[in-house]
Amino acid sequence: MDIDLLEEAKKRPFAEKLQLVEDLWDAIAEEAARRPLSAAQTRLLQARMEAHQANPNRGRPADEVLREIEQRL
Fold first, then answer.
1. DSSP string, 39-54
2. Cβ(9)–Cβ(17) under 8 Å?
3. What pTM, to 2 d.p., does this model score?
4. For the chain: N or C, fewer Cβ within 10 A?
């Protein structure tokens, strides 16, 4: 990273720095979504899918888990 770019960003007001971080993160996420999965990621996803198919009632719905987490906070 060009140090001048970082130094310039540091000089900006807080709200602008926050917006820059959000915009940069969005750009990174978009780029990451376009990248193909690695062989290791593909194997892991396949293993998890097979485990789910072998016992589909083992998991819990995401909204139930999130509700439980929120209650603990």
1. HHHHHHHHHHHHHHHH
2. yes
3. 0.52
4. C
